[in-house]
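Re: weekly structure request thread

Next one in the queue (246 aa):
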Amino acid sequence: MLLILLCLVGLLPTVVLQGRFGQARLWRGRSLAEHSLMAFSGGVCRVFGLRPRVHGKPLPGPVLITANHIAWLDIELLHSAGAMSFVGKAEIARWPLLGFLAARGGTIFHRRGSHDSAAGVAGVMTAKLAEGSRVAVFPEGGILPGEDIKRFHARLFKVPVEAGCPIQPVMIRYVRDGRRDPGTTFLPGENLVVNSIRLMGRPACDAELWFLPPYTVEDRSRRELAAVAEQAITAAYEQPIGTDGV
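Done, posted below.
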């Protein structure tokens, strides 16, 4: 019922404000488009049992946001802290409601395994950064089994080099009863619908979002840039639960 209410009350204004009118009007330093997206995404997080706990702030664009990837709700969690365009798999475009919102929010869809798609994605990312937008990627390459941070792929780290923009690592961690909560990710055999229903039926957990210090791209290869982000996020992820800083 809460999800239906959120869609009835918040979906239409959010979609409308993603257009030129919402992008052009500012309030308290943000566009109406960003305010509406943040509010709607925060509502989605709460409907699915997440209590966002945001530490730090996303750097004003242009900046490449790089985050670890645990659950499909990572996108909503990040959007609850600020507007940004995501690089996501092409299948997301077919997801009910979320695919529509992703497209309206500027998601850059990528077909895995396609060289032409990867080249096109890099071009769109560079263009969005040149416009002053934030762009977010999950360098692990998807939601992978296991709780640890996986190796960061370096391919898309060439984009900030070409755009001349900084990179900001972001650590995501879901916490319940003082421990990492593994239940937010896809369990074996789950699809989006089954996972969503299960999450709505669980008690709420804390969703930690740590915006870590940004770094510049000068004199570094894309593999070095990927390694810096991976190390920073891993170090933050492995910090004891409940610490005041990472």
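The chain has a mean pLDDT of 86. The beta strands are 26-27, 30-31, 50-55, 63-67, 85-89, 108-110, 134-137, 167-176, 179-180, 205-211.
Next request, please.
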